[in-house]
Specification:
Structural class: alpha/beta
Number of helices: 14
Order of helices and strands: EHHHEHEEHEHEEHEHEHEHEHEHHHEEEE
Strand content: 15-25%
Helix content: 40-55%
CATH topology of the largest domain: Rossmann fold
């Protein structure tokens, strides 16, 4: 069964540790271990299969458990552990040991932290990160060591394109994948001249690029692209600029506190009455309570919505609420699918789950996920639905599938050459 190892960098006094410890089981006691050892010694090679099953799988969780992104790290971890608990707390008959390390969402520490998990703790699989800058450092170590890595959030395009590698998989998204479908949606809804706005950093620019590509290919015009210094949340000057341009609509990428501030300020300026607001799903995800009525009518595209009306999602939402006392979000689904990806892969392996066997098994997995059907491309990126959602009465209501089983551009992936 699963057991929890807390890295010394992790604050064990926080809510995460108390909740997660309750979902983990303990190591076998000394008597149980001695009996196991005696049995194996007597049985020898005839019990090699049993010996294999008693070899724990060590999962290294390199996620933020402090700072701005701590809630995201907790949601991903919750989803991951729920998925594995639903498999009896094991992966292909192997017990599971969790080694958690607080990434602090700090890119400068990423190579050292990744090396610590892989070389120091000897984990079998690394799950992380949230932050795309941290992912860059992790990918360098993954390439050097061959460590199997599952990315449950960071949306940088390069991870499953220019920097793709056989041992790296993603259960989340790319910035392009969530924004590209909205370009066609906005055009189909009658808009021809649009202003785009985001922070001046790589993630925001990648998101805008997807929307702008689809919108201009459809025949629309980007009349202005506004880049706000990161991580400023002072938007009044830019809102005045938008009002003076008077476009047909605005498309934006902001997240977290920036998303809350922008949507609130947009509504307070009265722009939502005359200039519809569109965005990537992260504009409103996790923020609906803070946004209140200011978010009503905002349309976003995303690979998940908590109100998705499918048996798989209803079962997931119910199980998550029972385990953690709150509704799941997109981050929880991404962690959950990382757990189910591992569970299916380990269960399919005949014999010892060495690195090559596990990679081959992971590549073959198809998930019947709460978000809908998910398979993996040659670059190990999820092929998945992207939904059009509208905020009404504090909920994301799915109005359509904006793009069905969307694949990402990955022609620069070395595995495809």
């Amino acid at each position: 069964m699963a057991k929890l190892t807390i890295d010394k960098n992790l604050n064990t006094d926080n809510t995460y540790s108390r909740r997660q410890a309750s979902l983990s089981s303990r190591r076998p006691g000394p008597l149980a271990r001695s009996l196991q050892a005696a049995t194996l010694a007597l049985a020898g090679a005839a019990l090699s299969t049993q010996a294999l099953a008693e070899h724990d799988v060590k999962l290294g969780l390199m996620l933020p458990y402090s700072g701005t992104y701590a809630a995201l790290g907790e949601s991903i971890t919750n989803g991951l552990k729920l998925a594995i608990e639903q498999e009896g707390g094991s992966l292909g008959g192997h017990g599971v040991e969790y080694v958690t390390l607080d990434s602090e969402a700090n890119p400068s520490k990423a190579p050292q932290n990744m090396s610590r998990l892989v070389k120091g703790d000897g984990v079998d699989v690394v799950i992380g990160p949230v932050h795309s800058g941290v992912a860059m450092g992790m990918l360098r170590v993954a390439k050097q060591t061959g460590a199997i890595t599952i990315i449950p959030n960071a949306g940088l395009e390069a991870a499953t394109n220019q920097l793709c590698m056989p041992n790296v998989f993603r259960t989340s998204f790319s910035m392009w994948q969530n924004s590209y479908p909205m370009g066609q949606v906005a055009y189909d809804q009658g808009h021809r001249k649009i202003v785009t706005i985001t922070w001046d950093y790589a993630g925001g620019k990648e998101d805008l690029a997807g929307f702008e590509q689809a919108f201009t290919d459809a025949g629309g015009e980007i009349v202005e692209q506004i880049l706000v210094p990161f991580p400023s949340t002072e938007f009044q000057t830019y809102l005045a600029q938008i009002a003076s341009i008077a476009p047909d609509a605005v498309y934006t990428f902001f997240a977290g506190g920036g998303g809350v501030g922008f949507v609130r300020d947009y509504a307070a300026a009265g722009l939502n009455d005359s200039i519809p607001l569109y965005g990537s799903g992260f504009l409103t995800d996790g923020n609906l309570g803070a946004l209140g009525e200011a978010a009503n009518g905002v349309q976003t595209t995303m690979h998940y919505a908590e109100t998705l009306d499918t048996p798989q999602n209803q079962a997931f939402v119910s199980a998550y609420q029972e385990a953690y006392g709150e509704a799941p979000d997109t981050y929880a689904v991404q962690g959950y699918d990382a757990g189910k990806l591992l569970a299916q892969a380990y269960a399919s392996i005949d014999g010892e789950p060495d690195r090559e066997a596990l990679i081959a098994a992971l590549e073959a997995v198809e998930l019947d996920s709460p978000r809908g059907p998910v398979s993996f491309s040659a670059s190990h990126h999820p092929i998945q639905n992207v939904y059009l959602r509208e905020v009404r009465d504090g909920e994301h209501h799915v109005t359509s599938i904006a793009s069905e089983q969307l694949e990402v551009p990955d022609s620069a992936c070395p595995m495809k050459s």
